Amino acid sequence: MQIKVRTLTGKEIELDIEPDYKVSRIKERVEEKEGIPPAQQRLIFGGKQMADDKTAAEYNLEGGATLHLPQWDPVLDGWVVVLKGADGVCHGWFEG
After folding, report:
1. What pTM value is reported for the model?
2. Coil, strand or helix: which one is 67?
3. Residue ranges of the Ubiquitin-like domain (predicted)?
């Protein structure tokens, strides 16, 4: 199935994955396409951080799903992502 990973800049990375892929494998696929090491990635789905040891199926990911890839901000000393809600409003998310 094909999913998208959206970066903080709005860039969308398209990935072909299988339901049995662990999140750690999805991060490896992001590294293959974008060169971002898995240790520097966090993936967000449904507003929650995904655990490396869980599978796409455990998160009920389906084709067309969009994951969000926060960016580390050294000034804030934390992870930052902007999510666009169903209401069309952008909501910031930060974890220090």
Report:
1. 0.79
2. strand
3. 1-69
